[in-house]
């Protein structure tokens, strides 16, 4: 039984789901802020890509590190966290047939987050916080910088607890039967992971803030790195959970795909909840302070259960799509179901490409780089950004873009303009980010360091020159980055146009992105999914080749007699 | 066919209890990563300088 108050709910004209109007307001507010920070991060990104391209080398050294700080925080923290709060409010209300727990708490959350995020950006532009996203001690930023991050972390925590309030009152008021829907379970997993993440963020930034104020003399760099990475890496695990939930949601919205076995999918989310946060230890694999046992336990063994979870989702999402498509009669061969998918629906295209990029590039490189022995030949090289641009940008950002193609028509009740452009936007962005990610990885394989203004060491007394192939790869970073930037800019322009000037669809269903697919009944869903299985086997083969090639590269570092 | 009156499977009960999942998540993170790592750093012997 729904628990909405009078005049605080509307029925979606497309899905028939109830939409809490309070939640809708905060979904819009957080989503708009997210896109603004995405734009700031994107403008910084193009500056970086064109600086790392040696032939262009756009920015001077001081601005390179300032813009790199700006890019990391706006893209990896602000854009993602604001959008995730929007997702949590949507899942905790509409999908549970329930109301927002507290409007006042939602205001507090948003105000803390926006004041914090703006403070951080102001501090960066003041020029006294060029400490990069990681702000490793003893690099010192301004109090405004650290205070801003604390406010963002606390504000997000408040928003997460507002979401927990939503699922509490939904259960109390019996607004749904049985277990929560799978997408809500995924969002809950993201919220749970966010709690540990943000608590570590608050813990690490408090002494750093006190240090920047001059209240304490030092902060131990080893301790800082340990605690900071439980914020820095775990926040990306929040993204992974939210992204996977979005994959399931879009598979259902676009093709009616339902998981073959929800218990398996939920078990995979439980693996994330329990084990994925300890993967932060990857970043300390060459740190001298923590021991080998700690490193191997936290980056292997238990953590591989989290990797298993990703592999489960990597099978169950395409299997859900294949099941529905085969139920429609697309049964010929291994991949007819895939060819008949609605590739002109930008939400579907973005989501499916997000899966492919996340798995084939981000996942394979991530597990390999997270292996202690191999990490020694990759640590602090461009291979690391090559990996996480495939997970966070090609994976999470692309999936969130796909979701926006439903959020704007369904929640903002506005239609996207220039639909042909919207249809090609995910492809432009995906091609750009794949090219950039791969060339970054190859440049890193030549030994090119990350976070470096000039790898040609111009004017340096102790110069070093990389293989000419590295220069070619860095040019690829510039070309791929420019293409991804254009795709992202197109997304922002279309979305802003739709939100503020788009045709209203209030009172009528949203315009379909593609002609509606033939309906498929649950009993027609095919339970054999050989195509998805073949894709998984292909992934495993690619992983094996890459993994053992890296062991070979490690063995080639020096002669062992 | 499963008896609707039978108690849910323990795994299902775990999945339906976000508070327990939250507790376990924090426990594993703090014990395995933060606590153990902090302990090792705190007990690091001082380096012998040349």
Could you walk me through the main structural features you see in this protein, from its secondary elements to its overall organization?
The complex is a heterodimer of chains A (561) and B (50). Chain A is mostly helical. Chain A has a domain at 15-232: Cytochrome C Oxidase, Chain A. Helix content of chain A is 68%, strand content 1%. Chain A contains 17 helices and 2 strands. Chain A has helices spanning 21-52, 61-93, 103-125, 143-172, 182-212, 221-232, 234-255, 262-275, 292-299, 302-327, 336-339, 346-369, 372-375, 383-412, 419-445, 468-501, 530-555; strands at residues 9-11, 18-20. In chain A, strands 1-2 form a two-stranded antiparallel sheet. In chain A, strand 1 (9-11) and strand 2 (18-20) form a beta hairpin. In chain A, helix 2 (61-93) crosses helix 7, helix 12 (346-369) packs parallel to helix 15 (419-445) and helix 15 packs antiparallel against helix 16 (468-501). The radius of gyration of chain A is 23 Å and the shape is globular. Chain A starts with 8 loop residues before the first strand and ends in a 6-residue tail after the last helix. The mean pLDDT of chain A is 92. By secondary structure, chain B is mainly α. Chain B is 62% helix and 0% strand. Chain B has helices spanning 10-15, 18-42. Chain B starts with 9 loop residues before the first helix and ends in an 8-residue tail after the last helix. In chain B, 20% of the residues are buried. The A-B interface holds A 164, 167, 179-180, 185, 188-189, 192-193, 195-196, 199-200, 220, 222-223, 226-227, 230, 234, 263, 266-267, 270, 273-275, 277-278, 280-281, 284, 289-291, 294, 297-298, 302 and B 11-12, 14-16, 18, 21-22, 24-26, 28-30, 32-34, 36-38, 40-41, 44.
Distance between the termini of chain B: 74 Å
**Helix and strand run of chain B:** HH
**What letter string, H or E per element, gives the SSE order of chain A?**
EEHHHHHHHHHHHHHHHHH
The counted number of beta strands of chain A is 2
* Largest sheet data of chain B: none
- The CATH superfamily title of the domain at 15-232 in chain A: Cytochrome c oxidase-like, subunit I domain
């Amino acid at each position: 039984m729904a628990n909405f108050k009078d005049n605080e709910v509307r029925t979606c004209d497309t899905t028939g789901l109830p939409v809490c109007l309070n939640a809708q307001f905060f979904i819009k507010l957080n989503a708009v802020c997210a896109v603004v920070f995405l734009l700031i991060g994107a403008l910084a990104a193009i500056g970086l890509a064109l600086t790392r391209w040696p032939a262009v080398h756009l920015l001077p050294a001081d601005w390179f590190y300032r813009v790199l700080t700006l890019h990391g925080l706006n893209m990896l923290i602000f854009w993602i966290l604001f959008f995730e709060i929007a997702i949590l409010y949507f899942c905790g209300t509409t999908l549970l047939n329930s109301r927002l727990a507290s409007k006042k708490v939602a205001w507090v959350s948003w105000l803390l987050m926006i004041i914090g995020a703006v403070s951080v950006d102001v501090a960066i532009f003041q020029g006294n916080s060029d400490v990069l996203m990681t702000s490793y001690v003893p690099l010192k930023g301004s109090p405004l910088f650290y205070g801003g991050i604390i406010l963002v972390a606390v504000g997000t925590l408040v928003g997460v607890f507002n979401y927990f309030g939503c699922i509490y009152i939904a259960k109390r008021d019996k607004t749904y039967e049985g277990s929560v829907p799978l997408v809500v379970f995924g969002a809950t997993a993201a919220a749970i992971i966010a709690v540990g993440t943000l608590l570590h963020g608050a813990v690490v930034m408090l002494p750093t803030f006190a240090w920047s104020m001059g209240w304490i003399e030092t902060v131990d760099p080893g301790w800082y790195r340990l605690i900071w990475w439980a914020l820095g890496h775990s926040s990306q695990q929040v993204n992974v959970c939210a992204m996977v939930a979005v994959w399931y949601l879009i598979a259902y919205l676009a093709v009616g795909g339902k998981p073959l076995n929800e218990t398996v999918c939920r078990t995979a989310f439980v693996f994330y909840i329990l084990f994925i946060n300890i993967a932060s230890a990857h970043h300390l694999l060459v740190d001298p302070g923590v021991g080998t046992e700690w490193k191997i336990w936290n980056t292997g063994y238990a953590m591989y259960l989290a990797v298993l979870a990703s592999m489960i989702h990597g099978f169950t999402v395409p299997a859900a799509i294949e099941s529905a498509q085969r139920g429609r009669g697309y049964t010929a061969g291994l991949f007819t179901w895939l060819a008949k998918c609605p590739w002109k629906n930008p939400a579907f295209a973005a989501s499916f490409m997000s899966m492919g990029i996340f798995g084939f590039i981000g996942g394979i490189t991530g597990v390999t780089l997270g292996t202690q022995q191999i990490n020694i030949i990759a640590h602090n090289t461009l291979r690391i950004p090559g990996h996480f641009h495939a997970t966070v940008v090609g994976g999470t950002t692309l999936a969130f873009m796909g979701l926006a193609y439903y959020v704007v028509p369904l929640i903002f009740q506005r239609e996207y303009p220039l639909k042909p452009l919207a249809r090609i936007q995910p492809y432009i962005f995906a091609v750009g980010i794949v090219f950039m990610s791969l060339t970054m990885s190859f440049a890193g394989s030549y030994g090119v360091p990350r976070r470096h203004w000039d790898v040609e060491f111009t004017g340096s007394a102790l110069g070093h020159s990389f293989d000419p192939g590295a220069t070619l790869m860095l040019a690829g970073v510039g070309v791929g980055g420019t293409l991804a930037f254009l795709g992202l800019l197109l997304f922002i322009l279309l979305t802003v146009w739709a939100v503020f000037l788009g045709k209203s669809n209030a009172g009528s269903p949203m315009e379909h992105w593609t002609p509606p697919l033939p309906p498929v009944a649950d009993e027609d869903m095919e339970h054999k999914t050989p195509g998805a299985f073949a894709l998984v086997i292909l992934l495993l083969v690619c992983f094996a080749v890459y993994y053992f090639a890296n062991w070979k590269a490690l063995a080639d570092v020096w002669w062992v007699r | 066919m499963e008896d609707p009156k039978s108690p849910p499977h323990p795994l299902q009960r775990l999945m339906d209890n976000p508070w327990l999942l939250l507790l376990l998540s924090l426990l594993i993170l703090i014990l395995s990563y933060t606590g153990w790592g902090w302990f090792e750093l705190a007990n690091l012997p001082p380096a012998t300088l040349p």
